[in-house]
Amino acid sequence: MDAEHPICPICQRPIPPDARQSLHHLVPKLKGGKGGPVVLVHQICHNEIHATLSEAELAREFNTPEALRAHPRLAKFIAWVRKRPPTFHSKTPKKMRGRK
Questions:
Q1: What is the pLDDT along the chain (100 residues), one digit of tens a residue?
Q2: How far apart, in whole angstroms, are the C-alpha atoms of residue 86 and residue 43?
Q3: Which residue ranges make up each domain of the chain?
């Protein structure tokens, strides 16, 4: 991989300076994560996380990059986005969470 750029912990592609990027709170701020650990991710990966999971799900079960990568919808997204260049960005479909 590209040693001169940080690596997105979600898709594991480099994050060059011109890529859309943001910080993701591993525990959402609204669920007690203010001041907690954050990771630098591609904006498209961040959008997909929040379109897939609720704040409660993120706080309870999906509060590590490993857990996020293991989620079925996110795993499918990651397989797709890894084929794109590191600066790729597109609109993310609206929230697709299935309610039980």
A1: 446 899 999 999 999 999 999 999 999 999 999 999 999 999 999 999 999 999 999 999 999 999 999 999 999 999 999 999 999 999 877 665 554 3
A2: 11
A3: 1-93
